[in-house]
Amino acid sequence: MIRLQDVSYVRLGTADLVGATRFATNYLGLELTESVEGAAYFKSDEREHTLCYFEGDPADHTAAFEVGSRDELELAARELERLGHSVYAGTAAEAEARKVREFIAFKDPSGNRVELVVRPAYSGRRYHGVRDAGISGFSHIGLCSTDPARDELFWTEVCNARVSDRIGDAPLLRIDEVHHTIALFPSAKPGIQHINHQVETGDDIMRSFRFLTDRQVRMVFGPGRHPTSSARFLYFEGPDGMVFEYSSGVKSIADELLYRENQYPFEPKGFCKWGAKPNISEFQK
Amino acid sequence: MITIEQLRYVRFGTADLAGATDFAERILGLQLIDKDEDQAFFRSDYRDHTLVFVKGADPSGAIGMEVRDLETLDQAASLLQSQGYCVSRGDAAAAAQRKVKHVLSFSDNSGNAFELVVRPLQSGWRYFASRDAGVIGLEAVAVRSTAIAADEKLWTTVFNGCVSDWVGDAAYIRFDDSHHRLALHPSGKPGVLAVEYGVEDVDLLMQNSYFLRLAQVSIMDGPGRRPTSGQLFLTFAGPGEALFSYVAEGAKIAKGASHRPRQFPKTRVSFCCWGSDCHVPEMS
């Protein structure tokens, strides 16, 4: 079993690095920590970076998860190869570009690019964005899945994820006490479906809703509240159509033995208990 | 000093009683309690009614406030008269029409109509509306004022109101432990600006926000949060000139607490710290 400790970062290709950087800092509210030839790194919490935009194909998305040790990384590589996944061991230079000690890369059954990393860099300096978005950290990702039932098995049997709730066939998966760190949504092609940052309060959600609306950022869902995780949310569109989410008040699942997942309908009311309707294709029938 | 026990009702005149009734029930989510050819009563809580629409009466509205007993009502009458206010005692028919024992009407310096009532009717039956708007009761009334200093003085000297906060010259006045029950907003004309109903929590406020949008009700202000009272609010158009609001959460100021009224600048952020759109001139 591959024991995922946390989601570490996402890497997104872009044809317009300057535009993506402007969005990530001025609109999304992240802090630009490093700008190198062809890539920009952004910070959202105590970690050195949680988002990297690089010059490349906008459909090129990678999500990275932390594993506990080098031994676990090796075990994971062997397990993945045994199951028929092709595993790529990152070079030292590639690891440095990801600010991790070591990593391996593979594709999940849908074809999503996933990296397992050891010792991702933390930072001694706290996050301070250019605008007060109230971000408390990068928290979870939605992944596109061409077969959510099959992929649920991969993340829960091969990896250590547990199902916290399902919306239709879309599972919300936890790897620690947070209600979900990975969510799988039905789609025709792989890729990162949305990127979530937690904000401190519901007020931050509403302030950002006004702030971003005033700047003509396209709102795609919310403000609303998830019946599943009880988090208040706002989804909006960033560069290259990537959906970003702010949320606050996500449920914590402390009792692994007593918790039972619930089934919610794959309809607007399964996604929002306030009455907001999603304008996100993966959240619609 | 006359103690106001609580807000009791707001009475609005209307030329379209059927339309106003439809708004109060279907949109606002109140319970129709009593109806005849000329008026319709709506319940929002344990009070028999907190909203009345009357065919043809003054559309700017009259605000009903309860005082303890007949003696207090008489004191109020003489105190108001000694300060130069014109008061009029309602007869038995006027009291019966309002479901109270005694009623005394007067206008503030702006011309806003108020009614002091004794022994207003309570209900043994709880509020049960056809739509689950989550209303928990009449919370406050905002009125326009053309003589803001004199009106503030009326409520804080003749009556037991205390200013909780100011935004510019707008005054939030409390009579109990709620941040305010009466808000006075400087304006070019008098009249009820908004009738505010409390809802259970933020979920109900936002559910109502989506409901109203779907029902094509014109949202005038919010959803937002008031930095003064800490309340969440959503203000929308009613059948007449007066607006209606849902409010939730918000600070309490305990009786005897050492709260000092704070002066906020007359800017938009003093009315909403979320940055919501506002179409109410008094709060823009």
Structural write-up:
The complex is a heterodimer of chains A (285) and B (284). By secondary structure, chain A is of the alpha/beta class. Chain A folds into two domains: 115 residues, 2,3-Dihydroxybiphenyl 1,2-Dioxygenase, domain 1 (Roll); 143 residues, 2,3-Dihydroxybiphenyl 1,2-Dioxygenase, domain 1. Helices cover 20% and strands 37% of the residues of chain A. Chain A is built from six helices and 17 strands. In chain A, the strands form two sheets. Chain A has a nine-stranded mixed sheet with strand order 14-15-16-13-9-12-11-10-17. Chain A is globular and about 45 Å long. Chain A starts with a strand and ends in a 14-residue tail after the last helix. The mean pLDDT of chain A is 97. With 284 residues, chain B is an alpha/beta fold. Chain B folds into two domains: 113 residues, 2,3-Dihydroxybiphenyl 1,2-Dioxygenase, domain 1 (Roll); 144 residues, 2,3-Dihydroxybiphenyl 1,2-Dioxygenase, domain 1. In chain B, the strands form two sheets. Chain B has a nine-stranded mixed sheet with strand order 14-15-16-13-9-12-11-10-17, covered by helices on one side. The mean pLDDT of chain B is 96.
Question: Span from first to last CA of chain A?
Answer: 33 Å
Helix content of chain A: 10-25%
Roughly what is the average pLDDT of chain B, rounded to an integer? 96
Average pLDDT for all residues of chain A: 97
* Biggest interface between chains: A-B, 16 and 16 residues
What's the CATH topology name of the largest domain in chain B? 2,3-Dihydroxybiphenyl 1,2-Dioxygenase, domain 1
Number of helices of chain B: 6
The helix/strand order of chain B is EHEEEEHEHEEEHEEEEHEEEEH
CATH structural architecture of the largest domain in chain A: Roll
State the CATH architecture of the largest domain in chain B. Roll
- Count of discrete domains of chain B: 2
Number of strand elements of chain A: 17
CATH superfamily of the largest domain in chain A: 2,3-Dihydroxybiphenyl 1,2-Dioxygenase, domain 1
Roughly how many Å is the radius of gyration of chain B? Answer: 18 Å
Helix content of chain B: 10-25%
